[in-house]
Amino acid sequence: MTYNNPNINGSNCSELNILESLRKKNPLVICITNDVVRTFTANGLLAIGASPVMSECSEDLKDLIVHAS
Fold first, then answer.
1. Nearest Cα to 48, choosing from 64, 67, 68, 29?
2. How far is residue 53 from each of residues 9, 41, 50, measured CA to CA in Å?
């Protein structure tokens, strides 16, 4: 689906098409992070249509990476 923004003189907004495509795929994103930014990162990924998995340990990466999109 292509969106037209009347404020851009009929130009297509490809950014919206990218977000629509991302939301349809709902990719699983592995995040190795700390307590300070965990919630912010997770909420940002959820807002664009991804499914975040958060961990503090790089050792978890071995088990999680096979499920990442």
1. 29
2. 40, 10, 10
Two structure tokens written together for 40: 């912010």
pLDDT digits (tens, 9 = 90+) for 3-51: 555 555 555 566 678 888 888 999 999 998 888 999 999 999 999 999 9
Contact 30, 61 (CB under 8 A): yes
Instruction: Give the C-alpha separation, 33 to 40, whole Å.
Output: 11
Please state, in angstroms and rounded to a whole number, the distance separating the CA atoms of residues 7 and 53: 37
Q: How many C-beta atoms surround the C-beta of residue 40 within 10 A?
A: 10
Coil, strand or helix at 68: coil
The reported pTM is 0.69
Distance CA 69, CA 27 (A): 5
The DSSP letter of residue 32 is: E
